[in-house]
Design brief:
It contains two helices and five strands; from the N terminus they run βββββαα. It is an alpha+beta fold. It has one domain: SH3 type barrels (Roll). The relative contact order is 0.24.
Length: 90
């Protein structure tokens, strides 16, 4: 199963304008924000992350609702978080 997971923008990742540091369920990773070019992004904003890309900017309320739903999935959600821990964009 492939999931889009809400992540909170922490700040720039450094080195590349298209990369930002995002925290997803306690895991910090660099994600590509190039698809959101032209949108204002600030630390504390929420984005929907899938396979290392921020797909859209979402509200905090939507992010919290999606996270609650995903956590309720149990093992598929845990598997996705484990895969996120093991990956990183370099």
């Amino acid at each position: 199963m492939c999931l889009g997971i809400p992540g909170e923008l922490v700040g720039p990742a450094g080195g590349h304008d298209d990369l930002a540091l995002v925290e997803v369920s306690g895991v910090r990773r660099r994600v590509n924000i190039g698809l959101l070019e032209g949108q204002e992004l600030n630390p504390g904003d929420w984005v929907l992350v899938h396979v290392g890309f921020a797909l859209s900017k979402i509200s905090e309320d939507e992010a919290q609702a999606v996270l609650a739903y995903l956590e309720g999935l149990g093992q598929p959600y845990e598997d996705e978080i484990d895969a996120l821990r093991a990956s990183d964009i370099t």
